[in-house]
Amino acid sequence: MFLTRVLCKLVLWLLHALLVVAETLSLIRHRLLHRLEYKSVYSNSKLDPAKFACSPSSVHRSLHSFCKVPKHVAVVIGESLVSYRDVANLVVWCLFARIPHVTLYDVEGVMKKNWSELYKEVLRSQKKHFGSCDTSKVVLYVEGKETTEKNGRNGYTHHVHVRLASNEDGRPLFAKFARKLCQEVKEGRLSPSDIVPDLIQKQVSGDWPDPDILLRFGKAHSVFGYQPWQLRLTEIISLPTHHNLRLSEFLGALRTYDNREQRFGK
């Protein structure tokens, strides 16, 4: 029995080691393919990441060559560890591209619980890329409420609204709203004829538009409970990890979205 247990543990250890090696090789393959694709596509282009950090406005000018730029980017973190530094960089890159709405989603709501730490990283990344005289503002929403502005400056010319979401904002939120409607109908404060799609849309999504693009980070091909009613026309793009994410990878995702032919059911 002892020998059998030792043998089983050895087999499990070997399987785990093989999986780790396979994931590492897969990530290396992704990085290499991305670099080769980047060199072939952008070698004669203005989209040079080395210039972006120094001049964010050049990103906006370069994106004029795109036929479409998303107005709302959703980010789904399907990894166990969240890198606040890399997520903050992603938010600031959306400022580069003048994308006004960003939703950051993880199943357990880790970013919602640690929103102050994330916000500090966003401000640090914003100062690093834009400088101290930046006129852009990142507005963070937690549980549907805007967080307190930290720096107290006015005169902002660009905004990016960042909403933190988790599994609680998916089906549980919809079920909670349905119970509320039933209670109001039961008490006579609401007529069944008043329950229309616009009312439901406003309650569960607010004034936010549906995401144009969803960036899914992780190995699993899942949206991890993200609000399904918002993803009817959303383009889903998968990336292996958000750790050490490069600006060129983000722009590559935007170019992939730009090249997608959307027929909207036609």
TrEMBL record:
Localization in the cell: Endoplasmic reticulum membrane
CC annotations in GO: dehydrodolichyl diphosphate synthase complex; endoplasmic reticulum membrane
UniProt-listed Pfam families: Prenyltransf
Example of a GO MF term: ditrans,polycis-polyprenyl diphosphate synthase [(2E,6E)-farnesyl diphosphate specific] activity
Required cofactor(s): Mg(2+)
Pathway assigned to this chain's UniProt record: Protein modification; protein glycosylation
EC identifiers of the protein: 2.5.1.87
Ranges that cross the membrane: none
Name of the protein this chain belongs to: ditrans,polycis-polyprenyl diphosphate synthase [(2E,6E)-farnesyldiphosphate specific]
Gene designation per UniProt: 8050512
